[in-house]
Amino acid sequence: MPIGQLDGGHVLYALLPGRAHVVSVGLFAAAIAAVVVGGYWQWSLMLLLLALVGVRHPPMAEGGAPLGGVRVVLGWLMLLFVLVGFTPTPFDLSSLP
């Protein structure tokens, strides 16, 4: 499963069909930087899997129909929710006995 099919990947691809790949590569690079610089090593396996399957979204069979204004607003709100709900360390294993 390419990174473009995870969570907001389809939404991003619908909102930015020509530039979604650039954004996904940037997010992948930022995630790698967060692991190395921030020490979020729990994400290493996920990043390895994403590196193996790639960051490109597969092409659509019938091309993209233009989205209406309501769908564009809902799409950006959906991506905002991913940012608001994201937690870099969902489990703190250091506090376990």
Structure overview:
The chain is mostly helical. It has one domain (3-95). It contains four helices and no strands. It has helices spanning 9-15, 20-38, 44-53, 69-85. Helix 1 (9-15) runs antiparallel to helix 4 (69-85). The longest helix has 19 residues, at 20-38.
Largest sheet descriptor:
none
Number of helices: 4
Show unreliable segments: none
Overall residue-averaged pLDDT value: 79
Strand percentage lies at under 5%
Q: How far is the N terminus from the C terminus? A: 36 Å
Quantity of strands, as a count: 0
- Gyration radius, in Å: 16 Å
Sheet/helix structural class: mainly alpha
Question: What is the H-and-E element order?
Answer: HHHH
Structural domain count: 1
Overall geometry comes to globular
Percentage of residues assigned to helices: 40-55%
Write the layout of secondary structure elements.
Elements: H1 9-15, H2 20-38, H3 44-53, H4 69-85
Helix pairs in contact: 1-4
Summarize the structure.
By secondary structure, this protein is an all-alpha fold. It has helices at residues 9-15, 20-38, 44-53, 69-85.
List keywords for this structure.
97 residues, mainly alpha, 4 helices, 55% helix
